[in-house]
Amino acid sequence: MIRTLGLTKRFGELTVLHGISEEIREGEVVSIIGPSGGGKSTFLRCLNLLERPTAGQVFFEGVDLTQKGVDLNRYRAKMGMVFQHFNVFPHLSVLENVTLAPTRLRKCDKAEAQRRARALLKRVGLLDKEQERPNRLSGGQKQRLAIVRALAMEPAVMLFDEPTSALDPEMVSEVLAVIRDLAKEGMATVLVTHEMGFAREISDRVLFMDAGVIVEQGPPGPFFDHPQQARTRAFLEKVLPL
Amino acid sequence: MTANIIRLLGAYGLKFLGGLRVTLMLSALTIVASLPLGGLICMLRMSRLRAVRLLASSYIEVVRGLPLLLQLYCFVFLLPRALPLQLTRLQNVSLSLALFSAAYVAELFRSGIQAVDSGQMEAARSLGLSKAQAMMAVVLPQAVRNILPGLGNQFVIIIKDTSLASVFFVDDLMTVQKVLTGTLYTTMEPMIIAGVIYFALTFSLSKLVSLYEKRVSLA
Ligand SMILES: Nc1ncnc2c1ncn2[C@@H]1O[C@H](COP(=O)(O)OP(=O)(O)OP(=O)(O)O)[C@@H](O)[C@H]1O
Ligand SMILES: [Mg+2]
Question: How high is the ipTM of this complex?
Answer without folding.
Answer: 0.93
